[in-house]
Design goal:
- The complex is a heterodimer of chains A (about 325) and B (about 550).
- With about 325 residues, chain A is an alpha/beta fold.
- Helices cover about 40% and strands about 15% of the residues of chain A.
- Chain A contains 12 helices and 11 strands.
- In chain A, strands 1, 2, 3, 4, 5, 6, 7, 8, 9, 10 and 11 form an 11-stranded mixed beta sheet that branches.
- In chain A, helix 3 runs parallel beside helix 4 and helix 6 crosses helix 7.
- In chain B, helix 2 runs parallel beside helix 16, helix 3 crosses helix 13 and helix 3 crosses helix 17.
- Chain B is globular and about 65 Å long.
- The two termini of chain B are about 40 Å apart.
- The chains are: A alpha/beta (about 325), B mainly alpha (about 550).
């Protein structure tokens, strides 16, 4: 027993020492970034930022929503300077709690007005289009509906998938409420649920199910498909954009803001400006197949250009009215 | 003066005077040790109750709107779903776990050691990986569907919803029942069963009337753990798309950022836990105190010859190991190979492994130590409050990891900013979440120690703390170690607490798996997942080895 105990103690102590080493090595105060976007994507570009500007950066990774919830709990004592979010909803929640500081007008002017908050507390870093992904072995493009509202038609019963817990879909439903009106949105959701629309936990699972033929079409963001194409260029699926400014072709953003509690607001904003520079924007476009926020950045050849997408006209900040959307999703039975 | 005397033994007073006062002092000293234990236990439990205090504050903020939400038909339906899931999991885990424990302890099952180790492994597989693999295997277009398609099987029964969540959680939690029941089977004295046999009872009747009642505390503790696991689990219910409590709490936190509603829901979960705890206490109390009554020493029971029954027994174990271990590990390996063939870049795994290992090891040690006072008091104290302390640690155990982690974010960032996002807070978070595992294991080990042994130690002049150190702790060692091992492997796979509380830049295996999952890179999921399983499996070996040592000594 004693031997085991000694062994345990030794292991534990060496573990403790090993764990405390990196912490002891840092003593300068770096810019603290909370990233709701993944490490594989964000880490290389922030390293490049540090190399170019000499500003050290420390990043915490997590889900966008979990990070936003963390920031809400931390409140005035947050160590974070910058929050990079996967969607406008999380940024909106922080803005509403008064946790974000206003950005300079010249920073906000870098992106199209549609992709920044009206009170200038966050800007978009990249654009993401909502699409209908479809299985190319089962369907041809000509068989796809002209509007997202057609998916509620009994002809599509059991053939459609979506991810009702996903923030992108919820933002999309909010857009539907705004553009079509509450009653039409409710009727559409009820018809979709009655139509046995298959619920998945995230967009990726929806695309996977479409590729597997479990369902024929799915409502997702445009870039998920490209992840699967990178592993296997022959997967039987393609993206479809609803034409004529249909609400189905909504374009949303991933963005960033500076925390009001930041003690390095200047450096924090310089990071956001740098992320809207050409090299960072090109990087996002190449790595994620997302749409750049500035002009003059080339996009992947398989992508429909942003200005060719006949997207609906909407103010993205209106999409922060998530509460009513969730209630609607719950009442219609789309959400638990 | 009194204090110095108790430390140095005898003071300057004449010895005969001391001898005269001895009986009186013993009473006093006893209560002192117990008081110190009670203070330590109370502090420990107070920390584990922090998340509940946080929830209460948040829920109060919602006022009557929160109450209306809690009592809305939709919320109540979800509560019903979760209770049904927890009950079903507890029962099925017992139905699988008890036969498994019995087969691997009391019979001539071929390759007993192998089945024991392999059959305990499913508990090291995180539910978010397990459920993902289940879908890959038994989903509408999964492996099984592909294999069965040529045989004319068009459609598999759907695994999404209750059935999928129930089966997968059962599979990953039955070892929570099997291991304590095993320990109890090893430690029970065969003399009682032999006496029953010699008095004319048939073997089956002996099992129901003598063996099973002795297993009651262990069985109840194991079922409690699987029920609480089912209530708190998020990974499996999310992937299986079952509308359980945790899924709704997550939605409130992460989609609508409504902390008040989330808190109301989480408190309802605590209320359900209280009800389950009361039930468990009723069941286990009836069977507590299982030790030899007579003189002499317990032997090990002679194994029962299975004969032809070995075949169904092997099939049973094979099924568990096949679905619970071989399938997940095999699929992970195939993802890894496919990734390697496709030339996928594998992320480094050494640092995350060491980080996860050290954080989990420290948490295991800390919880093993912290579990002793409440577990000891629960059984040996006459004070209601002190007995209650052992159970109170469970209150937060049904809370989803996210809720506990956010509570710690709130307290640490606002009250202990210098410790926020450091190792101590991470370990505190793990301990809070998993302390019940070590309390449970320690407590069930203590129930099997005859208090007369302790009384004998006291009678021979040892003080209470000496008795605890020299008699109680060594006898309960297997239980304490297996509790520590349970905490270790739970901390290894814990995701939300790790993501939210770990120091910035502290890479861990679950965080790596999570990152790879969110980027849909299967090869990168496989490497850390396999390492996680491997390292946790080692802890399981330590636990089983300990158990054997104890069994050999008894």
């Amino acid at each position: 027993m004693r031997k085991t105990f000694r062994l345990f103690t030794l292991l534990a102590l060496s573990g403790l020492i090993a764990a405390s080493l990196p912490a002891a090595a840092q003593d300068a105060s770096p810019l603290v970034v909370y990233s709701g976007r993944s490490e594989g994507l964000i880490a290389p570009i922030l390293e490049q930022f540090s190399a170019e500007t000499g500003i050290p950066v420390e990043v915490r990774y997590g889900g966008t929503a979990e990070m936003a919830a963390t920031l809400l709990e931390e409140g005035a004592n947050s160590p974070a300077d910058v929050f990079i979010a996967q969607d406008a909803g999380a940024l909106g929640a922080l803005a509403q709690a008064g946790l974000l500081a206003p950005l300079k007008p010249e920073t906000v002017a870098l992106v199209p007005a549609a992709f920044a908050s009206p009170d200038s507390v966050w800007v978009g870093l990249s654009g993401r289009a909502r699409v209908l992904v479809y299985n190319t072995e089962i369907l041809g493009e000509e068989q796809l509906p002209a509007s997202i509202t057609d998916l509620a038609d009994p002809a599509w019963a059991g053939r459609v998938g979506w991810a009702p817990t996903n923030a992108s879909l919820q933002a999309h439903v909010t857009a539907l409420r705004i553009l079509l009106g509450e009653d039409a949105a409710r009727a559409w959701l009820e018809a979709m649920v009655a139509n046995a629309t298959q619920s998945y936990d995230n967009n990726r699972a929806v695309v996977q199910a479409v590729i597997d033929g479990e369902i024929e079409v799915g409502l997702v963001n445009h870039y998920y498909l490209f992840g699967f194409l990178a592993e296997d260029p022959d997967v039987p699926a393609a993206n479809y954009f609803f034409p004529d400014g249909d609400v189905g072709s909504l374009i949303n953003i991933a963005g960033a803001g500076v925390l009001a509690t930041s003690d390095q607001a200047e450096a924090a904003e310089s990071l956001i400006v740098w992320l809207l520079g050409e090299s960072a924007q090109t990087y996002f476009a190449e790595q994620t197949y997302e749409y750049p926020m500035i002009d003059g950045v080339a996009i992947d050849a398989r992508l429909t250009a942003l200005d060719e997408i006949q997207s609906p006209e909407i103010d993205l900040t209106d999409l922060s009215d998530l509460e009513a959307t969730l209630e609607l999703l719950s009442e219609t039975g789309a959400l638990p | 003066m009194q204090l110095t005397r108790s430390i140095f033994g005898f003071g300057s007073d004449a010895r005969w005077l001391m001898a005269l006062r001895a009986p009186l002092r013993r009473v006093r000293r006893r209560s002192r040790t117990m008081s110190i234990l009670a203070v330590i236990a109370a502090l420990t439990i107070a920390v584990t109750l922090l998340p509940i205090a946080y929830l209460a504050v948040r829920a109060l903020g919602s006022g009557s709107e929160g109450l209306a939400y809690a009592l809305s038909p939709r919320t109540l339906a979800v509560v019903g779903n979760s209770i049904a899931l927890a009950a079903a999991v507890a029962i099925s885990a017992a139905l699988v776990g008890v036969p498994f424990a019995w087969l691997t302890t009391r019979t001539t099952l071929p390759l007993r050691r192998f089945w024991l180790v392999a059959g305990s492994l499913p508990m090291v597989i995180p539910s978010y990986i397990g459920a993902m693999i289940f879908i890959a295997a038994f989903g509408p277009r999964g492996l099984a569907a592909d294999l069965l398609a040529p045989l004319g099987v068009e459609k598999l029964p759907p695994i999404y919803g209750f059935v999928g969540a129930w089966l997968s959680i059962t599979l990953f939690t039955y070892p929570f029942v099997a291991l304590p029941v095993r320990a109890a089977l090893l430690n029970t004295d065969p003399a009682q069963e032999e006496a029953a046999r010699s008095l004319g009872l048939r073997r089956r009747a002996v099992f129901w009337q003598v063996t099973l009642p002795q297993l009651r505390p262990a069985l109840a503790a194991g079922m409690l753990l699987s029920a609480l696991y089912a209530l708190s689990d998020f990974g499996a219910v999310a992937l299986m798309r079952f509308d359980a409590f945790t899924r709704v709490i997550y939605t409130q936190y992460t989609s609508s950022f409504d902390r008040e509603r989330a808190a109301v829901l989480a408190l309802m979960l605590v209320a359900v836990t209280v009800a389950i705890l009361a039930l468990e206490r009723r069941i286990s109390r009836r069977g507590s105190g299982n030790y030899r009554a007579g003189t002499g020493c317990a032997r090990r029971s002679a194994p029962i010859r299975l004969g032809v029954w070995a075949i169904p027994a092997l099939l049973f174990c094979g099924l568990l190991v096949g679905v619970g271990v071989a399938l997940p590990v095999g699929l992970l390996l195939s993802w890894l190979l496919r990734g390697a063939v496709a030339g996928a870049e594998l992320s480094p795994v050494v640092a995350p492994t060491l980080n996860s290992l050290s954080a989990s090891l420290l948490s295991a040690l800390a919880s093993a130590l912290l579990a002793i006072p409440p577990a000891y008091l629960a059984l040996r104290s006459r004070s209601r409050f002190r007995q209650w302390l052992g159970s109170a640690a469970y209150l937060g155990n049904a809370l989803p990891g996210l809720v506990v982690a956010l509570a710690f974010v709130f307290f640490a960032s606002n009250l202990l900013p210098s410790l926020y996002q450091t190792m101590p807070i991470l370990i505190l978070g793990y301990c809070t979440r998993f302390l019940p595992l070590s309390i449970g294991a320690t407590r069930s080990a203590l129930t099997q120690i005859n208090p007369r042994l302790e009384d004998a130690g006291r009678g021979l002049g040892l003080r209470r703390w000496q008795v605890i150190l020299r008699i109680t702790a060594p006898l309960a060692r297997a239980g304490i170690t297996s509790g520590a091992a349970l905490v270790f492997l739970s901390a290894m796979k814990e995701l939300p607490t790790t993501l939210l509380l770990a120091p910035t830049g502290f890479e861990t295996l679950p965080a790596d798996i999570w990152t790879a999952t969110s980027e849909a890179r299967f090869a990168q999921i496989a490497a850390p997942a396999l390492l996680l399983v491997l390292v946790s499996a080692l802890s399981l070996m330590v636990m089983l080895w300990q158990e054997r040592q104890t069994a050999d000594r008894l």
